[in-house]
Amino acid sequence: MQKQAIFQSKLLPYALVAPQLAIVLIFFYWPALQAMIQSFLLQDAFGLSTSFVWFENYIELFKEPAYFEAILRTFFFSFAIAVSSLSFALLLAVMADKPLRGSMLYRTLLIWPYAVAPPVVGVLWIFMLHPSLGVLSRYLRALGIDWNPLLDGDQAAALIILAAAWKQISYNFLFFLAGLQSIPRSVIEAAAIDGARPMRRFWTVIFPLLSPTIFFLLVVNIVYAFFDTFGIIDTMTRGGPGKSTETLVYKVYTDGLLGGNLGSSAAQSVILMIMVIVLTGIQFRFVERKVTY
Amino acid sequence: MGSLRPPCVLTSPHSPFPTRYSPVQPMANVTLRSVRKTYPGGFEAIKGVDVDVGDGQFCVLVGPSGCGKSTLLRMVAGLETVTGGEIDIGGRVVNGVEPADRDIAMVFQNYALYPHMSVYNNMAYGLRNRGMAEAEIKTRVEEAARVLELSAMLERKPRQLSGGQRQRVAMGRAIVRQPKVFLFDEPLSNLDAKLRIAMRVEIRKLQRRLNTTSIYVTHDQLEAMTLADILVVMNGGQVEQVGNPLDIYEKPATTFVASFIGAPPMNLMSTRPEEIRSQLAGSAAADAGIVGIRPEDFVITDETPAGGLVLPLTVEAIERVGAETFVYGSREQEDQRVAATPGELPPGEVIVRIPGTQAPAIGARIRVAAVRAKLHLFSDDGRTRLKG
């Protein structure tokens, strides 16, 4: 239990939290409030008049099939990014956990991609997989694959998932490695003596003991896929071709800034906000209960 | 496979599979032949160890920390590679054999229970890995739980158990497997003193009942003395002495063994000072460089036993522990340090163990004497015991 601090003066504790509070209020709650207000307003096309329309923006939004498509698409992207990034990171972490020569170098190098900004990640992958410029595209064509993510929506989606998952591998790797190293060696040795082969040892002992880490990373990765993939999508596909890579966050941007429909864009932001609150709520609930085995 | 081995005491008479076992338990002696362990950096952890543990015997490896006893045990388990010599379990050299295929079970210092599994599943895990039928697993686990008084806790997770209970689960996990050999790596060192003694007795009783060959590592000489059929005293990666614990106590081969086994430790003195040299002159003992006397072999007396050793002491401290009393005295004549070994007394200090609580006052000058037969004589370097 946390110890309670006792202050002599009544003002001092408020003064101490004031800077933090100011930052949170100005940079988080103020914009959030603005978005909420905006979501109840309707502006005409030239921005000359604004009227209060209650929930009309939300109602319009839910009447729009494209919005549901975007929701489904976002869920699919999140799932695909989280699963591929988590499983690949876990594989790397399990291998890096072995006592290898130069493992420090190996581990350090694996962390680097995390320092790359999302738009740069997008540019990197576009260079490698651009239909006419990309180095890898040539090999894909040589293999008989008609590779053109600029025209093929599914391929564009695959490209986004690949780039977004790649960037998140480092982060996941770091947590998995720490998680693996916190498993007592003697437990794994006991399993070895108990006749479990390496694969069985992994699935029956190591994996269950990693489950708190896996759960934590799953939530973090979903939040990442929801929000932080904006830069990657913007540099790689701009939501296209068609709307095949337009996620909820990207739709907020296209509808609001490009389409000029600020009311609908704000309503979408509020819905996203609720989603992230729910996700974080789940996370805290479980982390506090020390989810686990 | 372990699953086809005989029942020992563990399989209850109500076992649904009574006829599957053969009535004869295969021999499981463990033989180490000039076993060596050299780490890639060149550090020699084990410098050639030869030990022969007979079928059903309880062997204890004892020594100070860093002497290589745990490394040696882990080599028998297959958790460390063997860089020289041979490890033989039940007539089969197992140097390159996986831990799982050595038919051994190990109890770890920190118990190494699977934290996400119930007590039942902790014990069943090794049997399931070997493809045993669930019905038979149930019989074995329940029987082991009954023996270890864990029956009420089979559904609990390890974190809901006390230290002693976890220890018993670790034991249970070992015995349900009915392996050829039990390996114990300081299994009692995480328990409090009272529980440690109780568990020590339990382990010995259990081992007697199951009659399974066991190797037990400890740094506690009392645990070693009380548990062992064969005691192996190790120091610096080498075996100092192997034998029956009482033989070792009565005839330690080196000054290291003399001071390590027995508490309080044996008094070791150089024979160089005139006071001692003159008393030993004219006997075979005159060649000895170091003379040792157990604290209980001294008596406070004014008599001089023939051929024995008499020392005048000033009493420095008294420790009364009820049944006996330890008298710490200092010798008049300064002595140089005999050998640097753990548990050894500071130079010039002599400890005397007398029964009861009657003791001389602090500061009193007393004479202590030991008879000739109770003198342990060693060469100058302390590495050889001389016949007295």
Automatic annotation (TrEMBL), chain A:
Residue stretches spanning the membrane: 12-32, 75-96, 108-128, 156-180, 201-227, 266-287
Indicate yes or no for the key word DNA repair.
Answer: no
Its Gene Ontology cellular component terms are: plasma membrane
Q: How does it sit in the membrane?
A: Multi-pass membrane protein
Query: What are the protein's UniProt keywords?
Result: Cell inner membrane, Cell membrane, Membrane, Transmembrane, Transmembrane helix, Transport
Asked whether the keyword Transmembrane is assigned, the reply is yes
GO process terms (BP): transmembrane transport
Matching SUPFAM superfamilies, A to Z?
MetI-like
Q: What is its main location?
A: membrane
Q: Which InterPro entries match?
A: MetI-like, MetI-like_sf, UgpAE/MalFG_permease
Name the Gene3D superfamilies on file.
Answer: MetI-like
Q: Identify the residues that the record assigns to the ABC transmembrane type-1 domain, covering every copy.
A: 71-283
**UniProt record similarity statement:** Belongs to the binding-protein-dependent transport system permease family.
Per UniProt, subunit arrangement is: The complex is composed of two ATP-binding proteins (UgpC), two transmembrane proteins (UgpA and UgpE) and a solute-binding protein (UgpB).
What protein is this chain from?
sn-glycerol-3-phosphate transport system permease protein UgpA
Taxonomic source organism = Bradyrhizobium yuanmingense
From TrEMBL, chain B:
Q: Where in the cell is it found?
A: Cell inner membrane
GO cellular component labels: ATP-binding cassette (ABC) transporter complex, substrate-binding subunit-containing
Keywords of this entry = ATP-binding, Cell inner membrane, Cell membrane, Membrane, Nucleotide-binding, Sugar transport, Translocase, Transport
Could you tell me which Pfam families the record lists for this protein?
ABC_tran
ABC transporter domain sequence ranges: 30-261
| GO annotation (BP), single | glycerophosphodiester transmembrane transport
Q: Which Gene3D superfamilies match?
A: 2.40.50.100, Nucleic acid-binding proteins, P-loop containing nucleotide triphosphate hydrolases
Instruction: Identify the InterPro entries for this entry.
Output: AAA+_ATPase, ABC_transporter-like_ATP-bd, ABC_transporter-like_CS, ABC_transpr_MalK-like, ABC_transpr_MalK/UgpC-like, Mo/tungstate-bd_C_term_dom, NA-bd_OB-fold, P-loop_NTPase
Q: Where is the signal peptide?
A: none
Q: Which GO terms describe its molecular function?
A: ABC-type transporter activity; ATP binding; ATP hydrolysis activity
Instruction: Report the principal subcellular site.
Output: membrane
As for membrane topology, the entry says: Peripheral membrane protein
Do you know which SMART domains this protein is assigned to? AAA
Known role: Involved in beta-(1-->2)glucan export. Transmembrane domains (TMD) form a pore in the inner membrane and the ATP-binding domain (NBD) is responsible for energy generation.
> What family does the database annotate?
Belongs to the ABC transporter superfamily.
The record's section on PANTHER family has: MALTODEXTRIN IMPORT ATP-BINDING PROTEIN MSMX (PTHR43875), SN-GLYCEROL-3-PHOSPHATE IMPORT ATP-BINDING PROTEIN UGPC (PTHR43875:SF12)
What name appears for this protein in its UniProt entry?
Carbohydrate ABC transporter ATP-binding protein, CUT1 family
